Write the structure tokens for this entry.
Amino acid sequence: MLWKIGLVLVILGMAVTASSCHFFGSFAEQMTEQRQVSVATWNPKTKAPLSAVVDTTSKTRIRVEARVETPQSVLDEGDLAGISEFRVPFNLIVRDRDGRDVHREAGAVRATQIVPEPESPHFDNFDPVVTASFETQAFAPGPGGFLEILVDADTVSERGFPVRRIQVITLDRVPEDLQRHAMGGVASLIVGPALFLLGGLVLVIGLFLRSGQKKRKQAAYAGPVPASSTTRSVGKTALGQGRVPPPPPSS
């Protein structure tokens, strides 16, 4: 019975491992379906709304990117040497063709940059401009697919560095449950081989025990050889050689 359990675990482990192909395949398929619909530069002076037309059969996401420049005078002082973080707060409102809000979100574009020391040989080739980005949560665009995007963002970072450009990128056919597919694939690659190895071990132990039981059963069926049959076989052998076997001892 034990070897049957091991065999079931081996088959189950193979099936779980194979299921990882489904999870990773779905992950890759959804990632390739996502598309970039529009890229627009936001004008901080006019704050004019931006627009885009997206697919209404899937969800939409807005990506905000800001290019922040570190002044040369700040770099020369060396106060930013090391890992420096840049942050630009913004507010975003997305409306449909009828002016109804379909999404609102407040956040901040962020970026991290390694700034060299003024004495470093890499200082002269250092690019003081860094691109900070932020993606909104996925949302349903509403009927028609037309989006009006209103942005309100600072023109300087929280450290007072100038923001050279803010771009608003609209994405549609946004994949859903990416984390679930990725975690499912990773879990399958861990659990599947573990079940396979455990099942193989149980299978080997079960077959070993089964072989031992068979040998014990065969030995029990054979039993001891009766004495009368031994005497008859000895007598037949003596007669075949022309000798008369001696009479059995009298009691």
The beta strands are 35-41, 50-53, 59-69, 82-95, 101-115, 129-135, 146-153, 163-174. The chain has two domains: 1-34+177-213, 35-174. The mean pLDDT is 78.
